[in-house]
Amino acid sequence: MTDQTPENAAENNPQAGENSPQFAIQRIFAKNISFETPNSPEIFTIQWKPDVQMDIDTKSKKLDGDAYEVVLSITVTAKIEDKTAFLVEVEQAGIFAIANLPPQQMAHTIGSMCPGILFPYAREAISNLVNRGTFPPLNLAPVNFDALFASYMQQVAQQAEENQESNQKLDS
């Protein structure tokens, strides 16, 4: 973690001008953490062959100046047969100073690069919570946030195209 802001980044790098792209992590923090074992202690008597599902979501908002908050939400549910063994929800957040990026690169930075930075922290929190619940270790696989972001952008473009087509039909 660094306290470097876009303003002092230029001071520390003489080649960085006022209009050069700038990125700095200002803070990484846990925004919300939840761990539930709704079927305990009975769940501990069943053979451990869980079906594990992971859901990921991100959201962001602009703060003051060039600061952005990015929140990576991960929900992991482990079920045995029809019973939930555990449910873990982690919202890992970060405040990032981002300046002088073209709109497309800004969207990619906020939608892919920042969640990629936050994921190892969320993965560690989830692993620790599962361990404290006395379940076998859970090691989440790496996530390709570039592919997720590209898929999201493709969906947005497709929705915009469909909306444009439906508006044209209404105008006819």
Descriptive tags:
172 residues, alpha+beta, Bacterial Protein-export protein SecB, four-stranded antiparallel beta sheet, 3 helices, 4 strands, 37% helix, flat, Protein-export protein SecB, cytoplasm, unfolded protein binding
Chart the SSEs and their pairings.
Blueprint: H1 6-12, E1 22-36, E2 51-62, E3 67-80, E4 83-99, H2 103-132, H3 145-171
Antiparallel strand pairs: 1-4, 2-3, 3-4
Notes on the structure:
This protein has three helices and four strands. Helices cover 37% and strands 34% of the residues. Strands 1-4-3-2 form a four-stranded antiparallel beta sheet. It has helices at residues 6-12, 103-132, 145-171, and strands at 22-36, 51-62, 67-80, 83-99. With 172 residues, it is α+β, with helices and mostly antiparallel strands. The chain is flat and about 60 Å long. It has a single domain (6-171), classed as Bacterial Protein-export protein SecB (Roll).
Q: Give the C-alpha Rg.
A: 21 Å
Q: Catalogue the unreliable spans.
A: none
Oligomer: single chain
Number of domains: 1
Q: What share of residues is helical?
A: 25-40%
Structural class assignment: alpha+beta
- What is the number of helical segments per DSSP (H or I, 4+ residues)? 3
| Through-space gap between termini | 56 Å
Could you name the CATH class? Alpha Beta
Mean pLDDT: 89
A few lines on this structure:
This protein has 172 residues and is α+β, with helices and mostly antiparallel strands. The chain has 3 helices and 4 strands; from the N terminus they run αββββαα.
